[in-house]
């Protein structure tokens, strides 16, 4: 299987040409993990909607815009209250007009220079629009409590009615102006959403003389919204919080050899930066000098530090623990692995999972249905149950408050976002809620061999002397000297596996496709493959038997020889990852059938597959063969995943129900085609992802049951008992908080593990 690990560089930004650049990283052997870059779609425009702070409002805007001709896609980001509209400019303008007609203010997204202030402005606008600033809400609750106390303590005093009315009105103004604005706009356009329900309920209570309860309802509702928003933001910001892990400055080598602290945005690719013990790595880079131990948990989820030597990659946000290192920068700060992970997960948060789409459709029917039920109670209550008109209207208003679908609507996005964040903390990037939900349905998984089950790097696994008078240490030194002069992967593996020495090789020559030769201590030695030894007429039945044994084990063999005969044999193999057998065992235990698909020869595939615990092993496959195999597995087993890391895996990754790219060694094409990226190349993360998918699905339906169950109980109480409006708000607030904190359990579990 071929791998493309080339690094793509770009010119240094203007103004930093004086930085000292290094070329050592261009041939680094340990590539930086690939995460899809944020390429903007053609025709896309981004907007800010300051008052969009609830999943139901997102759904409302989505339903209003999705049917507009020319709108190709919508990407919502509730955390920053933004919407990206992909499509023609005329379609985007039409969408903006429709959004404004629904009652939402919409603004063009600030340019890059002003974007840092945009978030703060957005937060300010949000507070102003919803009245959810904490001091304002505390004042509103105090006034509502005073109104309740006044009506209870001095109900008959002539002045108490007017004073209580004024206090209640002030409480409603402080807590509910934003809700009233959006609610009236929704009613004006014939839409029955949460804000419309609360507007009718509070206004109705005020009209029938229940102004203390109207004030308490609005104050409690606003507080519930604030608590809910902050809890949800915790999930939404779980990934964005990683930004704080990456330093804002880096120590950059200057032309005179000195070091200067420079903003990471001004550090060009190819520059040399220094990282001292205890510091965080500022940018993706390759070590050029020094050695150290690095904690990579923020990027790959690995709990144990990894040793780093020259040629190894380090990632922005990771922690240098032991030694000072110098590194060659391989990616701009905005394109670091950490930044691209954050962006990719934010994009994933903008996509809706199947359960979320179901809940949105249900809520679109549920809210009008409750409104009709409340209207029926108000009109038919006196006829059916003998209630007074005021009692019937009051019960109808209580129904409206209880029926607010906040808990139902918020239950799915907070759970999905928590699941995505939990996966990212474990070094798994899932590109959307649909893939998070789909993983639990997997029945089979196809595994590529090289770089997925195996390390993807050849290693000297065994060498032995053949009958000869040459001492073994001398044979080792001679072979090391020969292999050190070759760039072939097999030769490099042999050189790395033997003890370095001072033996000098002269008159070195490459024998194309067969091996290498050189003079050492006046003797001509060759280090070559089976074909070269056959051409030299030096093969024998004994040698053929030894070669056959190694080749059956999937090893590549090189032989050391002189004109008089073969001296030693060196076996190189791509070794299985320590975690592969355990990971495949976990998948089997979960009822998922693992199958190896590889372009390597069948004998090698069989050797590796058996060691990993596989029984269905398929070798000699071209990319189109892997694609056909995935299609066949989907028909045979059902939902099928594909795991790979090379260009030739991309078609199969795209065809699979869930495509999993092994990110640290993966090519950009494979990572782009995949739905899930495992950052640390550990196959055990796949089983973890399936388990996370199962937990997420369970929590989703727990939340739906909680939201609807609590409301059903209070609906019955409201009709046949004495449930009050403020009790209804507590029920609605309690249900919302229950589903939010239940969803956040996924994130807490990831933090503990």
State the gist of this model.
With 753 residues, the protein is of the alpha+beta class. The longest helix is centred in the C-terminal third of the chain and has 37 residues, at 684-720.
Question: Topology of this protein?
Answer:
Blueprint: E1 45-48, H1 55-65, E2 71-77, E3 82-87, H2 89-101, E4 107-108, H3 115-130, H4 134-153, H5 158-188, H6 194-207, H7 211-240, E5 249-253, E6 259-263, E7 272-275, E8 285-289, E9 292-295, H8 297-300, E10 306-308, E11 313-314, E12 319-320, E13 325-329, H9 337-350, H10 354-385, H11 389-402, H12 406-425, E14 428-430, H13 433-438, E15 444-447, H14 449-453, E16 454-465, H15 472-483, H16 489-497, E17 506-511, E18 515-520, E19 523-528, H17 530-535, H18 541-552, E20 556-562, E21 565-576, H19 580-589, E22 593-597, H20 602-612, E23 616-618, H21 623-637, E24 640-644, H22 650-655, E25 658-662, H23 668-673, E26 676-678, H24 684-720, H25 725-752
Parallel strand pairs: 15-22, 15-24, 22-23, 24-25, 25-26
Antiparallel strand pairs: 1-3, 1-4, 2-3, 5-6, 5-7, 7-13, 8-11, 8-13, 9-10, 9-12, 14-26, 16-21, 17-18, 18-19, 19-20, 20-21
What does this 3D model show about the protein?
The chain is α+β, with helices and mostly antiparallel strands. It has 5 domains: 24-30 and 247-335, Calcium-transporting ATPase, cytoplasmic transduction domain A; 45-130, Alpha-Beta Plaits (2-Layer Sandwich), CATH 3.30.70.100; 134-239 and 345-419 and 694-752, no CATH class; 426-454 and 579-688, Rossmann fold; 456-576, Calcium-transporting ATPase, cytoplasmic domain N (3-Layer(aba) Sandwich). It is built from 25 helices and 26 strands. The strands form 5 sheets. The chain has a 7-stranded mixed β-sheet, sandwiched between helices. Strands 6-5-7-13-8-11 form a 6-stranded antiparallel β-sheet, with no helix packed on it. A 6-stranded antiparallel β-sheet has the order 16-21-20-19-18-17, with helices on both faces. A hairpin with a 2-residue loop joins strand 20 (556-562) and strand 21 (565-576). Helix 5 (158-188) crosses helix 7, helix 6 (194-207) packs antiparallel against helix 11 (389-402) and helix 12 (406-425) packs antiparallel against helix 24 (684-720). The chain is elongated and about 120 Å long. The chain starts with 44 loop residues before the first strand and ends with a helix.
């Amino acid at each position: 299987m071929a791998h493309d690990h080339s690094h793509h560089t770009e010119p240094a930004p203007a103004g930093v040409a004086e930085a000292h650049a290094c070329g050592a990283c261009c041939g680094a052997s340990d590539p930086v993990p690939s995460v899809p870059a944020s390429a903007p779609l053609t025709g896309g425009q981004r907007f800010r909607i300051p008052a969009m702070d609830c999943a139901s409002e997102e759904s409302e805007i989505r339903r209003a815009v999705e049917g507009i001709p020319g709108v190709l896609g919508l990407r919502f980001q509730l955390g920053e209250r933004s919407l990206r509209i992909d499509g023609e400019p005329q379609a985007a303008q039409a969408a903006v007009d429709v959004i404004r007609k629904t009652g939402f203010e919409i603004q063009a997204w600030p340019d890059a220079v002003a974007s840092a202030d945009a978030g703060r402005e957005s937060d300010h606008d949000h507070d102003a629009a919803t009245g959810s600033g904490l001091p304002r809400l505390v004042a509103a609750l105090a006034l509502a409590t005073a109104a309740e106390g006044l009506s209870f303590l001095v109900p008959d005093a002539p002045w108490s009615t007017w004073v209580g009315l004024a206090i209640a009105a002030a409480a409603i103004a402080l807590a509910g102006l934003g809700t009233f604005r959006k609610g009236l706009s929704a009613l004006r356009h014939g839409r029955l959403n949460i804000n419309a329900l609360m507007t009718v309920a509070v206004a109705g209570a005020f009209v029938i003389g229940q102004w203390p309860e109207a004030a308490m309802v609005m104050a409690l509702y606003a507080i519930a919204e604030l608590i809910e928003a902050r809890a949800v933001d915790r999930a939404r910001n779980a990934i964005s919080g990683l930004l704080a892990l990456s330093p804002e400055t880096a120590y950059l080598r200057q032309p005179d050899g000195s070091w200067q602290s420079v903003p990471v945005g001004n550090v060009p690719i190819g520059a040399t930066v220094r990282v001292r013990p205890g510091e965080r790595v500022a940018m993706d880079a390759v070590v050029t000098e020094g050695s150290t131990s690095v904690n990579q948990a923020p990027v790959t989820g690995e709990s144990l530090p990894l040793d780093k030597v020259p040629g190894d990659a380090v990632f922005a946000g990771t922690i240098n623990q032991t030694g000072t290192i110098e590194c060659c920068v391989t990616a701009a700060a905005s394109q670091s692995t950490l930044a691209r992970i954050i962006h990719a997960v934010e994009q994933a948060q903008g996509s809706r999972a199947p359960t979320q789409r179901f809940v949105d459709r249900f809520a679109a029917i549920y809210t009008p249905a409750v409104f009709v039920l409340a209207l029926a109670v108000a009109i038919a209550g006196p006829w059916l149950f003998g209630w007074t008109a005021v009692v019937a209207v009051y019960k109808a208003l209580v129904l409206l408050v209880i029926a607010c679908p906040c808990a139902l609507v918020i239950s799915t996005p907070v759970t999905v976002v928590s699941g995505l964040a939990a996966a990212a903390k474990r070094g798994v990037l899932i590109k959307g809620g649909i893939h998070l939900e789909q993983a639990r349905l997997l029945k089979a998984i196809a595994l590529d061999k090289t770089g997925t089950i195996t390390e993807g790097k050849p290693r000297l696994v065994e060498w032995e002397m053949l009958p000869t008078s040459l001492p073994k240490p001398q044979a080792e030194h001679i072979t090391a000297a020969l292999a050190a002069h070759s760039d072939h992967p097999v030769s490099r593996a042999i050189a790395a596996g033997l003890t370095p020495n001072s033996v000098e090789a002269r008159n070195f020559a490459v024998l194309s496709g067969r091996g290498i030769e050189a003079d050492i201590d006046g003797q001509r030695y060759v280090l070559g493959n089976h074909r070269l030894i056959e051409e030299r007429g030096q093969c024998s039945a004994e040698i053929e038997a030894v070669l056959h044994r190694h080749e059956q084990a999937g090893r590549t063999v090189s032989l050391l020889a002189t004109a008089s005969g073969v001296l030693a044999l060196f076996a190189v193999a791509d070794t299985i990852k320590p975690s592969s057998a355990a990971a495949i065992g976990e998948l089997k235990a979960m009822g998922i059938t693992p199958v190896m698909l590889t372009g390597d020869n069948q004998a090698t595939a069989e050797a590796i597959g058996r060691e990993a615990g596989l029984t269905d092993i398929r070798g000699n496959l071209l990319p189109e063969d892997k694609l056909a195999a995935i299609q066949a597995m989907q028909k045979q087993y059902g939902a099928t995943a594909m795991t790979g890391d090379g260009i030739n895996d991309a078609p199969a990754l795209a065809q699979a129900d869930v495509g999993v790219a092994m990110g640290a060694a993966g090519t950009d094409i494979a990572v782009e085609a995949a739905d899930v990226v495992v950052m640390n190349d550990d196959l055990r993360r796949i089983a973890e992802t399936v388990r996370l998918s199962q937990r997420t699905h369970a929590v989703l339906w727990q939340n739906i049951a909680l939201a609807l169950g609590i409301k059903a109980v209070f609906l019955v109480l409201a009709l046949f008992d004495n449930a009050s409006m403020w009790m209804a708000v507590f029920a609605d607030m309690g249900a919302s908080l229950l589903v939010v904190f239940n969803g956040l359990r996924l994130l807490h579990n990831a933090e503990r593990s």
